[in-house]
């Protein structure tokens, strides 16, 4: 939940509590091999027993909450048991204060708050909804009444931030997993697999609970505080930063008062913005402040602070965050940020350095490419021209080497081009960020990168396919070809790799490329693969990497009954085209693989 709750045994504030009894009960729930795990009634009985014990005795409640497995217990609880526990935690104001003041017991509140949105989603239990809503109101009222003390003592500060996370509108800086992948990581547990509440998808509580009002209440409670000082406090800054963003999205009209107050504090201390944006904690506060600012106020900070220091800030390990956030979340919509784009492109050679390990500077290129695809008013050609000039590819005859130069992190004049073997050695040295930039340019259909990719010979393409980073690059190129219907590109890749499929299949990284080639290939291209692999079937079946591909494509079945194999493949590809939006091309949906595995042949 954002930090480690570890205290020394000698710390007098941390009482010694024997949690072994509850640890054992929670482990019985967590252990996949126990009989209780697959028996909902037994699990519910066990949960009911635990709740009865902790309800009757506050000491037992403390022991239960002190267990490091309490998060998992809350996560696995049914809506009914979850409601019982949350009501127990929030119904008594004295107990609420006592538990939130203890770092270990406050973790239970954080877990409940991070999970509550997911618990109520999809359920129609009106009674439970009303109970949970009242619990949230009790907790919100406590936070409002004790906000100043919480921010000063930091007791319950993480639970306070978790409460703010799940109310109001979605926060742009909070990562939201795809709906289809919800909690996929925890659908099936293995023995001794560690559970972390941080990995569970956080969902907002229902809007009809009308808890947005607490955003305004928190804002009013902060009106007498120096927000610049709180923005530099490690424990408090994440809360105040989140509050600014929530206020701007849920109450844009009423956020101006708070933002104007912060602006006045910056005016009183002219150097405070410069020092704060270069601070590890302060930069995050500045990031949220600029993200929440209306266009008129944002322009003031652009003209007075960001543009004059664009190179210094963009190269700084902390100050770059606010700039990249503006590029990513606001530049595609607002003309106000046009000058920022122009300044970044103009100073790009001074900002980036493809030889350095400070990758954040190079990701700026990725964000600029992305925003150009969303906002056509931005000068994408100027960005490419600047990048080409920096890499030494400004001459027309050298533009064909653009991809090679980008992938090997070297300027053109530094590359030995005497033979393709020398070039291949350089290609082997590619870095992840360069691969990411190249993919973004290919997705943007940038003509120079397209020519550069098409100029790669078979040796270079094979080296890319068998490189740990290059294999990801080739896979992404293949997926892009499929998504954008670039059939000529796809056929060109197959033609260049023809005769090399066996070598690529037996390579750890190359085996993934082969699976992707199979996934995106047409029937003719799949036949090209199996015709080459069938000659070395025995070698491939015994190879630790290639054997998975051999089973996936049904190589043995192709050798026995090629016509029947072709018919199965044709049907599969036809179904894939018709239902591409709902059928994923993964092992679970690979019917042909199951067919080859389960089919019994008759002599």
TrEMBL record:
| Keyword terms, alphabetized | Repeat
Gene Ontology molecular-function annotations: RNA binding
Q: Where along the sequence do coiled-coil regions lie?
A: none
Record flagged with keyword Nucleus? no
Start and end residues of each stretch annotated as Disordered = 582-603
Q: Which InterPro entries does the annotation name?
A: ARM-like (IPR011989), ARM-type_fold (IPR016024), NOP9 (IPR040000), Pumilio_RNA-bd_rpt (IPR001313)
Q: Which GO terms describe its cellular component?
A: 90S preribosome; nucleolus; preribosome, small subunit precursor
Q: Does the keyword Repeat apply?
A: yes
Residue spans of the Pumilio repeats: 455-495, 496-531
Q: Which domain of life is it from?
A: Eukaryota
Q: Which GO biological process annotations does it have? A: endonucleolytic cleavage in 5'-ETS of tricistronic rRNA transcript (SSU-rRNA, 5.8S rRNA, LSU-rRNA); endonucleolytic cleavage in ITS1 to separate SSU-rRNA from 5.8S rRNA and LSU-rRNA from tricistronic rRNA transcript (SSU-rRNA, 5.8S rRNA, LSU-rRNA); endonucleolytic cleavage to generate mature 5'-end of SSU-rRNA from (SSU-rRNA, 5.8S rRNA, LSU-rRNA); ribosomal small subunit export from nucleus
Please give the PROSITE patterns that the UniProt record associates with this protein: PUM (PS50302)
The record's annotation in Pfam families points to: PUF_NOP9 (PF22493)
Checking PANTHER family in the record gives: NUCLEOLAR PROTEIN 9
User: What is the official name of this protein in its record?
Assistant: Nucleolar protein 9
